[in-house]
Specification:
With 299 residues, the protein is an alpha+beta fold. 20% of the residues lie in helices and 32% in strands. Strand 5, helix 4 and strand 6 form a beta-alpha-beta unit. The longest helix is centred in the middle third of the chain and has 15 residues. The chain is globular, with a radius of gyration of 21 Å.
């Protein structure tokens, strides 16, 4: 692992090259990146290491680590046949949009925190979801077979990101990629209700939360959405309710908050309570996925 000031472009590429040259046929590589990312027209997506010069667009492009260079580095020295990329950064969804379609002997998969067009959040919600999967937390075992595989981690992260951050994550796999590869057995079995997405009533009103523990009398302990640690108290059943995402049907006319203004738009799709909208007029390039905080029915 390379972190903080050691995570320069040169160091990342050197350490990656050293690892790749030790690999053998049949090996599986997981490359995980948590940090800054960016995307520019005609330049694609790139990772932004510690020493990137962001003073101008040109200097950023020249000193960042382009996704295309990362993929080429892996293809040049990796002796195995399957590579998983995970990214918790702005525009990380470009990994899932591009890598699985590479032609060659290596099959790529990707699990990322955002869509290719979206910036990421200021929290480590996505990375925490990956860690839950890697450490065998029962909530990630979606089919309850006692094992956690890559596809379950991707689906779990997507659900968590939609609920807690109101942002869609991405995952994609090349044809033939073993997305059902078992990562670990379940180490901590989930009690009934643990991991459930709910709302709890506090003095601030109803707030999103995730159940972390339960008692026989129905009381639950929770952590608030976006917060890593549980609250130090129990909530009775009358202060907990199921969470239901707001879902606006396709074709509905809405207003979307965009750069401080409410603009008219039409809903084109919905996933997990997040809506893709088409703005009126000549604003097609601005069409995007929006959270519930930015959308309302047109009166």
């Amino acid at each position: 692992m390379i972190a903080d000031r050691d995570a320069t472009r040169r160091n990342i590429r050197k350490h990656l090259r050293d690892v790749l040259r030790q690999t053998q046929p049949g090996d599986f590589l997981w490359f995980s990146y948590q940090g800054h990312g960016d995307k520019r027209p005609n330049s694609g997506m790139f990772l932004v290491p510690y020493d990137t010069d962001g003073s101008t667009n040109k200097s950023e492009r020249e000193t960042a680590y382009k996704l295309s260079d990362l993929l080429s580095d892996i293809e040049s020295d990796f002796r195995g046949s399957h590579v998983l990329l995970s990214g918790d950064c702005c525009h990380s969804g470009q990994m899932a949009a591009v890598a699985p379609h590479r032609k060659g002997r290596i099959a790529f998969g990707a699990i990322t925190s955002s869509l290719s067009s979206e910036v990421s959040t200021g929290n480590w919600t996505f990375t925490n979801a990956l860690i839950e999967g890697l450490t065998g937390q029962g909530a990630v075992d979606l089919d309850r077979d006692g094992f956690i595989d890559l596809k379950e981690i991707g689906r779990y992260a997507r659900t968590v990101m939609a609920f807690e951050e109101e942002q869609l994550s991405s995952f994609g796999f090349a044809e033939g990629f073993p997305k059902k590869t078992g990562i670990t057995s379940v180490k901590t079995a989930a009690k009934a209700q643990v991991g459930k997405q709910v709302e709890i009533h506090r003095k601030e009103g109803w707030q999103k939360a995730v159940v972390t523990d339960t008692q026989a009398n129905g009381d639950v302990r929770v952590r608030l959405a976006k917060e890593p640690e549980p609250l130090d108290r129990w909530f009775t059943a009358d202060r907990v309710r199921d969470y239901t995402a707001v879902k606006i049907p396709k074709g509905a006319r809405v207003e979307v908050k965009y750069k401080g203004k409410w603009l008219k738009a039409t809903v084109e799709a919905e996933q997990l309570g997040i809506h893709h909208v088409r703005f009126d007029g000549d604003r097609k390039d601005d069409d995007e996925w929006v959270s519930s905080r930015r959308i309302r029915l047109l009166k």
